[in-house]
Design goal:
CATH class of one domain: Mainly Alpha
Oligomer: single chain
Strand order of the largest sheet: 1-2-7-4
Number of helices: 17
Helix content: 40-55%
Order of helices and strands: HEEHHHHHEHHHHHHHHHEEEEHHEEEE
CATH topology of one domain: Cytochrome p450
Strand content: 5-15%
Distance between the termini: 42 Å
Radius of gyration: 22 Å
Shape: globular
Structural class: alpha+beta
């Protein structure tokens, strides 16, 4: 365990491993919290290697990460475990696909996430921010789980910008299926730890099959209904934009199944990751009242008594810095994994075909070689021009496979955060600080319970 004693001046962090683990201990630890598999020494080294049945390397060096994610990306496809966990939910979508299949999908989807189209979706975010403030206002003065509130807000956004007006798309059923999938299917299996081949069934990933199949069938019906609609509306949603999208090189368009898998990717990945960022950001503002007061003054000066819009973003730089620093301390995608296809060298260390190459983003963002006082919450790190290496900060990944929805998520997070900070004072509840736990995403165990006081 991380031997550092709790520091009341630092927000919660994960206790990391101080001794090697065997197969069974690795399995039990990974089921509890994947981040506890990271050696504590990874916070002070560029690379750490070991063997748990298979050879593995954890990489925290920006130069090596640039090579893995950008220059040598074809040699480092996503690991079998990543594919086994996610494929049942999102198929061969952008997040999973490799090579030519990934390239054409990315080219076809890219226009949907242009700056102009992302900005055109901002009114949905503004409306969701207003509704979130109304819900929080009804419990003002009491204790509220802000993680649940942020999940509701971001699910409203992602639903409205993917399947707007879709009568056959049962949002509640989709939300239930996704939550069940995240809770059970995404946990590490003992077969994953020992490196069993993908064709060996993981029982936990069979249980959620019926709900996932029902969700996909529902999405297929909504897509087919949209295909039959005459013309494109004045304000197209993501489904409209993807239906119109095509690979500029091959003119290929997505089939219903490909559209569905990519839209479900955006729903699964897009709403919870932003909800997590917002929940952790509100907790950090409650943890640091001075930072919260500064952000509130900025938001109130820009907004008055209305919700934030995309036009307000240039006037909200400190709110954006809080979001950036939150993503450093609590990156939703806190642990990525690749499998080496060919022999390579990383940080002077030999990597062999079949080796697992791990990208522990949580450890990268807290590495003492890269960040001064790395466990401290300090939004000023992101003031002005970037002082850090581009590949030292990877909340959305990097290289050609950087998250296609990054600008969407950042825009949404700042709009909702600024709106809430302008209307409420958030305060910690003694003894109820969240504990960071990584299953598929870095969640606050038990939620983020805060007291919201109306201003």
């Amino acid at each position: 365990m991380d031997t550092a004693s709790p520091n009341p001046d630092l927000p919660p962090r994960v206790p990391l491993a101080t001794r090697p683990m065997g197969v069974w201990q690795s399995f039990r630890t990974g089921r509890r919290n994947v981040l506890e598999l990271i050696p504590e020494i990874a916070l002070r080294q560029p690379i750490v290697s070991g063997r748990t049945v298979k050879r593995w390397h954890m990489v925290m060096d920006p130069g090596a990460l640039r090579h893995i994610l950008k220059d040598g990306v074809e040699n480092y496809p996503k690991s079998d475990v990543t594919k086994m966990i996610l494929t049942p939910a999102i198929g061969e979508s952008l997040f999973i696909a490799e090579g030519a299949h990934w390239h054409w999908q990315r080219r076809a989807a890219a226009p949907a996430f242009s700056v102009r189209n992302v900005q055109s979706l901002a009114p949905v975010m503004t409306a969701a921010a207003d509704r979130a403030a109304e819900r929080i206002g009804r419990v003002a003065g009491g204790e509220a789980n802000l993680f649940d509130e942020m999940v509701s807000a971001t699910f409203e956004v992602i639903s409205d910008v993917t399947f707007s007006g879709g009568g056959s798309f049962d949002r509640g059923a989709v939300h239930h299926a996704i939550n069940g999938y995240m809770e059970s299917t995404a946990r590490v299996s003992f077969l994953d730890i020992i490196g069993a081949p993908p064709w060996v069934p993981r029982l936990s990933r069979l249980r959620t099959g019926p709900a996932m199949r029902a969700m996909k069938a529902m999405a297929d019906r909504a897509i087919d209904e949209r295909r039959e609609r005459e013309g494109t509306p004045a304000l197209p949603d993501l489904l409209d934009l993807l239906l119109d999208g095509e690979d500029p090189e091959t003119k290929r368009r997505m089939s219903t199944a490909e559209l569905r898998d990519n839209l479900l990717t955006f729903i699964v990945a897009g709403h919870e990751t932003t909800a997590l960022t917002l929940a952790w950001a509100l907790y950090l503002c409650a943890f640091d009242p001075a930072a919260q007061a500064r952000a509130r003054a900025e938001a109130q000066a820009a907004l008055g008594d209305r919700a934030a819009t995309v036009a307000d973003l240039p006037a909200l730089p400190y709110c954006r810095q809080i979001v950036d620093e939150t993503l450093r301390l609590y990156p939703p995608a806190a642990f990525l994994s690749r499998t080496a296809k060919a022999r390579d060298m990383l940080c002077g260390r030999e990597v062999l075909p079949g080796d697992t190459v791990m990208l522990p983003i949580y450890a990268l963002h807290r590495n003492h070689l890269l960040w001064p006082d790395p466990h401290r919450f300090d939004p000023e790190r992101f003031a002005g021009t970037e002082a850090h290496d581009r590949f030292a900060y990877l909340p959305f990944g990097g290289g050609p496979r950087i998250c296609i929805g990054a600008s969407f998520a950042l825009q949404e997070a700042v709009i909702i955060l600024a709106t809430l900070l302008s209307r409420f004072d958030f305060r910690r509840i003694p003894g109820r600080d969240p504990r960071p736990v990584l299953i598929l995403t870095l969640r606050p165990e038990g939620g983020v319970w805060l007291r919201a006081e109306r201003l």
